[in-house]
Amino acid sequence: MSELPAIRPSRRAAIAAGATIATACGAVGEESVVKGKAEHVISVWLGGGMAQVDTFDPKRKGDPKTKKPGCYYNTISTAVDGVNLSEHLSGLAPLMDRVTAVRTVNHGTIDEHAAATNRMHTGRPISGTVQYPSLGSMVAHQRGAISENAPPYVLVGYPNVTRGPGFLGNSAGYLYLTDTSQGPAGLSRPQGISEARQQRREKFLALLRNGQPVRPHPRRRAYEETTERALRLSGPEFGKVFELETESADLRNAYGGEFGQRCLLARRLVQRGVRFIEVSHNLNFLNGAGWDVHNEGILNQHRLIQELDSAVSTLITDLERVRLLDRTLIVITTEFGRPSGFDSKGGRAHQGSAFTCVLAGGGLQHLGAYGQTDELGKKIVADPVSVPDFFATVLATVGVDPGKHVYDGDRPVPLTDRGKPIRALFS
User: Fold this and answer.
1) What are the sequence ranges of the domains in the chain?
2) How many Cβ atoms from other residues are within 10 Å of residue 186's Cβ?
3) Model pTM score
4) Which of 1, 12, 287, 308 is the most buried (most CB within 10 A)?
5) Whole-angstrom distance, CA of residue 366 vs CA of residue 95
């Protein structure tokens, strides 16, 4: 008898099978996957590097003149026993039972802004072979928008590749705007294009599509889906979400300036059905340097902290008022922290070995604070949280398995790099 030909599985099938086996083997003896019930994420980005010792992980009082390491401000107690904050977070202090300051986030990325910003958006170091998706794109890809009349992912800030979809493609990308006084420029109809003219253009586009193959190339199909979504969102219905002037003057004033208005817009976008919103707080440099407080930049750092405090505390109570806090996870991240020591002019350098990121709402079992650093906030004493662990916590909160594999072509890539959610936050 002739020998039967060998059956050779495709490369994709072989890799997928291997990934499945590895996952199954790794799961033996491990706890089951945790899943929260939140539906939305509002991610507040503090570009420049928030000093944890001056905000959510205060230590002994320091003195920049004598170069005595420590925090720059006095501390205050909060709604959670044993959890203290900077005196400039007085709005958040009574709300800390709805908040967890994760004080032991850490990464080994070089203390340089671009690399660390990429790390805190994608959860991984920069790769020469893979363009990893951002956390926002992961959530958008896995959960999509709640309504077909809303995008899954909105960025309120300047666009950047680190915020993008990477290998997940444009369908997991973002809609962005930089000014809350108007909607996204890309959705604004050019001057001179009336409603009747717009309808004629759409009819002509439909005729062109009817002449195309029944099964278009995947890239063209993705392009057409993006076009259709843009046409839906450019109408007056979605545009109403940007009309902040319809909110009461008292509420708008409580949120504060431009950054506060961005947080108010985020709440309105959640109500419209947007899944993930990133709100940037590194554009209005009240102290001349933003959160990058080297040298004299630290002198007015308190103004940034106060602006963050008023906006986020109002966002928490506002979401609670409209019964969306348990369904919306608020996340505050930054690229790294700051050491408790002072530089030659009284400012602070960079520190990625231990810093704070914050979680609020989302139906989590909040603790006020999680993790412990030493007396100067330099070393982690208990409960370290890697960046993959922090990402896994966010994904699990919105019901996404952080160990799930997505594909870069034929290559399976887990959503996080072996990240494990902080189980203490899940009841």
Assistant:
1) 31-186+234-425
2) 11
3) 0.86
4) 308
5) 11
Q: Give the per-residue SS3 of the chain.
A: CCCCCCCCCCHHHHHHHHHHHHHHHHHCCCCCCCCCCCCEEEEEECCCCCCHHHCCCCCCECECCCCECCECCCEEECCCCCCEEECCCCCCHHHHHHEEEEEEEECCCCCCHHHHHHHHHHCCCCCCCCCCCCHHHHHHHHHCCCCCCCCCEEEECCCCHHHCCHHHCHHHCCEEECCCCCCCHHHCCCCCCCHHHHHHHHHHHHHHHHCCCCCCCHHHHHHHHHHHHHHHHCCHHHHHHHCHHHCCHHHHHHHCCHHHHHHHHHHHHHHHCCCEEEEECCCCCCCCCCCCCCHHHHHHHHHHHHHHHHHHHHHHHHHHHCCCCCCEEEEEECCCECCCCCCCCCCCCCECCCEEEEEEECCCCCCEEECEECCCCCCEEECCEEHHHHHHHHHHHCCCCCCCEEEECCEEEECCCCCCCCHHHCC
Residue 388: name the closest of 421, 359, 362 by CA.
421
Over residues 152-202, the pLDDT tens digits come to: 999 999 999 999 999 999 889 999 999 898 777 666 666 666 667 766 766
Q: Say yes or no to pLDDT of 147 above 90.
A: no
Q: Tell the residue number behind the tokens 């009819």, with chain if given.
A: 203
Q: How far is 304 from 290, CA to CA, in rounded Å? A: 7
Q: Residue written as tokens 């000014």? A: 179
Q: Which CATH superfamily is domain 31-186+234-425 in?
A: Alkaline Phosphatase, subunit A (3.40.720.10)
Residue whose C-alpha is closest to residue 36's, from 317, 299, 427: 427
- The per-residue pLDDT for 218 is 65
The answer to whether residues 405 and 413 touch, using CB atoms and an 8 Å cutoff, is yes
pLDDT one-digit tens code per residue, 273-303: 999 999 999 766 677 789 999 998 899 999 9
Task: Choose from 107-111, 229-233, 252-256 the range with maximum mean pLDDT.
Answer: 252-256
* pLDDT exceeds cutoff 50 at 26: no
Burial class (CB in 10 A: 0-12, 13-18, 19+), 111: middle
